[in-house]
Design goal:
By secondary structure, the chain is α+β, with helices and mostly antiparallel strands. The protein has two domains: 137 residues, Nuclear Transport Factor 2, Chain: A; 124 residues, VirB8 protein (Nuclear Transport Factor 2, Chain: A, Roll). The chain contains eight helices and eleven strands. Strands 6, 7, 8, 9, 10 and 11 form a six-stranded antiparallel β-sheet that branches. Helix 2 packs antiparallel against helix 3 and helix 5 runs antiparallel to helix 6. The two termini are 20 Å apart. The N terminus is likely disordered.
């Protein structure tokens, strides 16, 4: 088995490959609202992502063909930078990639921005990477135009909660961000407060789980000596929604500071189940995305 570390897992989120996609000011976001359009755009992103992030060193010419077929704009340079190490590796590589989870963050006309979790396999080595893709449609074909590994991008401007489908979607997203921030943050100097903030964003059955394990959670908070902070660049996208329930895919680089003062980023990709609780949304379950 070659000593290969998967390209997307090891590539640092540097300015060369991190992506630059931003919301389109003033444009109506139809993600999830236009269900057929959202499904078609996500299917196109899935096809392109799985093609461009799969690689066989026995057919190096396919790299350029795939880029020409599925990429446009800055994504071409980002793709080349991401694969520079793996293309120069003298050992044989057969990397297969598939999309495990995907959510549309923004759909405006011929542009979609999607959050994805990719599984990559090379022989018996397996790993995950979270990537935000922007894709553009032209001539009946979607092509990836921006690639952001371990992304931290702003959310589209929220639609007012006015009873519309867009308002419902963005209300759920705001609830998801509040829930993730409370659940994934912790401070050993304030264990009771850390627990209370997490409990406040939960509904059954997650609420019962927190309450039954309260003593263990508090002990863990007190003894860990760490402080975990969810940055504001938390990325969220609705995958399913009804009037009172939603599922949201999210990604965050949680900043964890240990007892010695060393801070490291801990990536977290998961789906969050939500239920409407009056004017707010609360978490009923969290499922971390894991390799198949």
């Amino acid at each position: 088995m070659p000593a290969l570390v998967l390209v997307l897992v090891t590539s640092a989120c540097s300015s060369a490959v991190s992506g630059t996609a931003t919301p389109i000011p003033g444009a109506e976001n139809l993600a999830v609202i236009d269900a057929p359009g959202t499904a078609a755009a996500l299917a196109a992103v899935k096809t392109a992502a799985e093609a461009v992030f799969s690689y066989d060193s026995a057919d190096k010419a396919a790299f350029d063909r795939t880029a020409e077929t599925h990429l446009t704009g800055s994504a071409k340079a980002q793709y080349t930078a991401l694969f520079e190490q793996i293309r120069n590796n003298p050992q044989p590589v057969r990397l297969t990639t598939r999309v495990l989870q995907a959510a549309a963050l923004e759909l405006t006309g011929n542009r979609v921005r999607a959050l994805t979790v990719l599984e990559q396999v090379n022989g018996t080595t397996k790993g995950l990477a979270t990537v935000a893709f922007t894709a553009l449609a032209a001539g009946g074909r979607w092509r990836l135009s921006d690639i952001a590994v371990s992304p931290a991008q702003p959310s589209p401007a929220p639609h007012p909660e006015d009873g519309s489908a867009a308002g419902l979607r963005d209300s759920a997203l705001a609830g998801a961000r509040a829930a993730v921030t409370a659940l994934a943050s912790a401070d050993s100097a304030d264990p009771e407060g850390s627990y209370a903030r997490a409990e406040a964003v939960c509904a059954e059955p997650l609420l019962g789980e927190y309450r039954s394990n309260k003593a263990a959670y508090l002990d863990k908070f007190r003894t860990s000596g760490v402080r975990a902070v969810v940055p504001p660049e938390l990325m969220t996208g609705v995958t399913t929604i009804t009037a009172d329930k939603a599922t949201v895919l999210f990604y965050a680089n949680v900043q964890v500071t240990d007892a010695a003062g060393q801070t490291t980023a801990k990536p977290l990709s998961a789906t969050l189940d939500l239920v409407r609780a009056g004017p707010t949304w609360k978490a009923t379950g969290v499922r971390t995305v894991t390799p198949s």
